[in-house]
Amino acid sequence: MPDTIGRLAATAGIGLCGGALFQLLHLPLAWMLGPALALMVLNAVRPGLALWPRLCGDFGILVIAYSLGRRMDGETGRLMLEQLPWMVLAAVFWFVLCLLAGLAIARRAQVDRTSALLGSVPGGLAQMVYMAEQFKGADVGTVALIQTARLIVVLYAVPLLAAHALLGHRAVVDSDGAAGVTAAASGVASIADGAAGSAAFGWGTWALLALVPVSSWLARRLRLPAGELLGPLLFVGGLAIAGWGWPQAPEPLVGAGQWLFGSYLGNRVRLRLLLENKRLGPLAVLTSLLLMAVTVLLAWGLAQLTPISMLTWFLSLAPGGLGEVSVTALALDADLSHVTAYQMARLLVVLLLAKAVAARLAARERSADGG
Asked: How many domains does the chain have?
């Protein structure tokens, strides 16, 4: 028990130091990206030292999902219905592009195509590793390595590109909610401001707030993809679209949520996988960077053809996790409805197609081995 407490305290302290450093450097999403990088490095230098319970990550993503959901309104629902065909088309396009990237990785790195596909599609690290375990012959380590490369590239390239290259100014970088770890007086003031937000803390609000973590638990029980995020996002967002006014989350709570979620992400990423695999690691990173370049070009083209900003298109199309990209959109004041709708559609479509195509590839490889 003392060893567990010591490891947990060390992990929390190192994560806070990473967040503080990013904040001093005025980097975007300091309290998510800073702890994530600090724990990635810690795991690479001292494997087995970091300890960060899943519960901490779940609480962080719960705060993020609530902050995202309360920003939705009737316009969000209208957008989802009107642009549903375009969202599905974009999702299918990304799946085909990632399928081609996976086949290229399989050929160049000499790994099986099933593992390369599951590693390349942007369906989430945990979901793809879990899916790989269901296919005989798929290599979980290969899937984890390629997904790790994508996660690292997206986790840092998306916020940095969006904040500095696409947004065009830095003022918003300092208002990412990371001021959350501040003095107690500031925290009390923020809580008071949040309580006086769009809805009063009546008994109905308290009852619904109590159901937010329940919605996360239920979504995970139903095995929804990214259920810990999707459940509360659908619950809070659905009621917001219907007209319910949710109170604003206090900034210290938002900052703490980013820290908890960032630490959870960093503790999951195994940087040593990329460093030790001299062939597959660089190839996976290069492929992820090429996908990011395609995203920038597509965002630029669509921004010329539509009234939607390049920033919003970039975040809508970015091949990242729903949580990471949505937090970036929230921090940089992009069109949150547009970004969330496109990211959710892609996640669902990719997960459905990935399983079917992976099963077909696995069957072909088994028959080729048998023949």
From this structure: 1
Torsion of CA 36, 41, 47, 50, to 10 degrees: -40
Secondary structure (H, E, C), 213-273: HHHHHHHHHCCCCCHHHHHHHHHHHHHHHCCCCCCCCCHHHHHHHHHHHHHHHHHHCCHHH
Which residues lie closer than 8 Å to 86 by C-beta, 6 or more apart? none
Phi and psi at 70, nearest 5°, equal: -70, -15
pTM for this predicted structure: 0.74
Judging by beta carbons within 10 Å of its beta carbon (0-12, 13-18, 19+), is residue 144 exposed, middle or buried? buried
| Region for 121 from its dihedrals, namely left if φ exceeds 0, alpha if ψ lies in -120 to 50, beta otherwise | beta
Tell me the residue range of the domain where 323 lies.
2-370
The residues, any chain, with a CB within 8 Å of residue 46's CB and separated by 6 or more, are none
Q: Phi and psi for 66 in degrees, rounded to 5?
A: -65, -45
pLDDT in tens, 97-109: 999 999 999 888 8
How far apart CA 297 and CA 305 sit, in angstroms, is: 13
Q: Hey, what are 342's tokens?
A: 């496109």
Are the beta carbons of 144 and 125 closer than 8 angstroms? yes
What is the chain's length? 371
C-beta of residue 65 within 8 angstroms of C-beta of residue 216 = yes
Q: Of 91, 89, 98, 90, which is closest to residue 358 (Cα–Cα)?
A: 98
The contacts found for 104-113 with CB under 8 angstroms, 24 or more apart, are 104/287, 105/146, 105/280, 105/283, 105/284, 105/287, 108/283, 109/279, 109/280, 109/283, 111/139, 111/142, 111/280, 112/137, 112/138, 112/139, 112/142, 112/365, 113/361, 113/365
Q: What are phi and psi of 239, to 5 degrees?
A: -70, -35
Pick from 56, 41, 40: which is nearest to 8 by CA? 56
Span 306-333, pLDDT tens digits:
998 999 999 999 887 777 787 888 778 7
Write the single-letter amino acid at 253: L
